[in-house]
């Protein structure tokens, strides 16, 4: 996509004007009281060909990673879920299938923090988003040279150090995040392609190692996942957000074969609708599915996946989320 120099400049200025993080940024979301019995709830939204991930901590802290391609689908989803405010929104990178709906989300939910990279790649839509962030006086923050910790109550998000910006391929400017809640963890790296993932493998492998759930990078593209990545992550299941019959052929057959070879359950929003995962910090469950994790054999569970409901510990708001947007 062509990027005009003028837009690049405005994007850079916009982020600067929005200001850096305050020193206490990481701790601002910590604490909270009560709700100890509630689980962590993560929704991988069925938002077409794009990403949008809603994170709700047991303490009621909320984060939204990406907002899909549609201008209002993510905001509508949040309203249906009874969300009234967001603590932080994160744009993994500047492509419209990740930030197309973020402007409406920011307008409607006025998050405390907005996280994005300083990549100069932009579009009119992304520029409009930055202007909204500024107009709403939302504090803009960015990944740093060292892992950046964000506490959502008892849920910890670690934002990966950002590799040197790739001015040719915006996918390689994706923000990487490791979510941890007790022994449960999720790895999300936007649309990171081989170059960016190799950089993290070389510099931050400990952040990648042993994650319970892997959100496939780049919607299951062949350039978003490889054997070395899976060997380190060792996921119990993978999730991909994508639109049915998308123009890119996602997920690529090479990725499907790789997952089959490694016997890793593959959860796709184009097949299941919104995918909701809950965890109490020890075990995790896929809401409204028989795919259940309790620290046992991944292979056995993959084979045993059935259609029975299984929602121990989940709150009612996270069930029944399979309705299709399209
Ligand atoms: Zn994408």
Main attributes of the structure:
Metallo-beta-lactamase, Chain A; seven-stranded mixed sheet; globular; 11 helices; alpha/beta; 326 residues; binds zinc ion; 27% helix; nine-stranded mixed sheet
Condensed summary:
This protein has 326 residues and is α/β, with parallel strands linked by helices.
Topology (elements, then pairings):
Elements: H1 5-18, E1 40-44, E2 53-56, E3 62-65, H2 73-80, E4 88-90, H3 96-99, H4 102-109, E5 113-115, H5 124-135, E6 139-141, E7 148-152, E8 155-159, E9 177-181, E10 184-188, H6 194-203, H7 205-208, E11 213-215, H8 227-233, E12 237-240, H9 253-261, E13 266-268, H10 269-272, E14 275-279, E15 284-286, E16 292-293, H11 298-304
Bound molecules: zinc ion.
Would you mind describing this structure in some detail?
The structure is a single chain. With 326 residues, this protein is an alpha/beta fold. It has one domain (39-313): 4-Layer Sandwich (Metallo-beta-lactamase, Chain A), CATH 3.60.15.10. The chain has helices at 5-18, 73-80, 96-99, 102-109, 124-135, 194-203, 205-208, 227-233, 253-261, 269-272, 298-304, and strands at 40-44, 53-56, 62-65, 88-90, 113-115, 139-141, 148-152, 155-159, 177-181, 184-188, 213-215, 237-240, 266-268, 275-279, 284-286, 292-293. The strands form two sheets. A nine-stranded mixed beta sheet has the order 6-5-4-3-2-1-14-15-16. Strands 7-8-9-10-11-12-13 form a seven-stranded mixed beta sheet. The chain starts with a helix and ends in a 22-residue tail after the last helix. The site of zinc ion has 7 residues, from helix 3.
